[in-house]
Design goal:
13% helix; 4 helices; single chain; 13-stranded mixed beta sheet; 334 residues; alpha/beta; two-stranded antiparallel sheet; Cilia_flagella_integrity
Length: 334
């Protein structure tokens, strides 16, 4: 048995709809329109129908929301969207592999040391201020900490099995303390206060890097990320496309909503499939020559650049980049 705050909110969340339906039914049963019990049981011919249950038999048993039983062998536990403030009473779940605490009121990562088999932990949309107490979770592969109040990246360096780290929508200013994450494949840092791309050299297996909506002004520090396939840098203050010489495996490059005036330094990205450059200051059609070596390019976003004012906007893109199948949000019709 498990009791306390977690068990209470589990019962509340899982049975709220049942209680609400029961309450509405009782209200209707007691209304003047529904009549008394004997009237409700009468058939069309006016006789009492013996098969119709009485009011007493229709009443549902009260819901016990104080306790709930959890199987110690359970591998997945979801406690999403409750009112949990404290992580507790999970010590017996030593076989647990996935724990979902999304959208609660948790202020501290704690009482997780017994969950040594845990591979996925989601504590997004809570009120955490720091990352802590994950020392025993050495099997962790996915860690979601989206939309908290975390100010620094810390206490994750020992998670050598971690493949995905989501720290978007926090208060992070510096990329740091990631050197031990040799297995990391995806890193999400969007909507923070980061001013510089740095301290990423050890992430040799990183394939997805998202750092949208920060304060980046220069593309740099990516030279060791030779396996990078997707790079998301939209909504920053970047003025020049540069620093991608070693990122030859890129299939998606997103530099939308920056201050770029020229498409340059990407002719070597022959694997590009998606190129997002909308909401910049591109005004020269010859810039598209930088994309001609990308024979698999299918999607190009260039809307809200000076180029779009050209009445032949779509036609010129199609002629310059014949492999493209989507221009902005619209597919090309053949």
């Amino acid at each position: 048995m498990i009791s306390g705050r977690i068990s209470y909110v589990l019962g509340l969340k899982n049975n709220r709809e049942q209680v609400l339906v029961w309450s509405i039914r009782k209200l209707c049963d007691n209304s003047e329109e529904s009549g008394d019990d004997e009237t409700r049981r009468k058939g069309i011919n006016g006789d009492v129908d013996p098969n119709q249950p009485t009011a007493a038999s229709k009443e549902e048993s009260p819901v016990d929301m104080d306790t709930i039983t959890l199987d110690p062998e359970e591998e997945t536990l979801s406690l999403r969207q409750n009112l949990i403030k404290t992580i507790e009473n999970l010590q017996s779940l030593s076989s647990l592999r996935e724990l979902d605490l999304y959208d609660n009121q948790i202020r501290k990562l704690e009482n997780l040391s017994n969950l040594r088999e845990l591979e996925l932990l989601d504590v997004s949309f809570n009120v955490l201020r720091k990352v802590e107490n994950l020392e025993e979770l050495t099997q962790l592969k996915k860690l979601f900490l989206l939309h908290n109040k975390i100010g620094t990246i810390s206490n994750v360096d020992h998670l050598s099995s971690l493949e995905m780290l989501e720290l978007g929508s926090n208060r992070i200013r510096v990329i740091e303390n990631l050197d031990g994450l040799s297995s990391l494949q995806s890193l999400f840092l969007g909507t923070n206060k980061i001013t510089k791309l740095q301290n990423l050299d050890s992430l040799h297996n990183l394939s997805v890097l998202s750092i949208q909506s920060n304060r980046i002004t220069k593309i740099e520090g990516l030279q060791n990320l030779v396996n990078l396939k997707e790079l998301y840098l939209s909504h920053n203050g970047i003025e020049v496309i540069e620093g991608l010489e070693n990122n030859k495996k890129l299939t998606t490059l997103d530099i939308a909503a920056n201050r770029v005036k020229k498409i340059e330094n990407i002719s070597h990205l022959t694997d590009l499939q998606e190129f997002w450059m909308n909401d910049n200051q591109i005004d020269n059609w010859s810039d598209l020559d930088e994309l001609k070596n990308a024979k698999s390019l299918e999607t190009v976003y260039l809307e809200r650049n000076p180029l779009q004012k050209d009445p032949q906007y779509r036609r010129k893109i199609m002629l310059a980049l014949p492999s493209v199948r989507q221009i902005d949000a619209t597919f090309i019709r053949f």
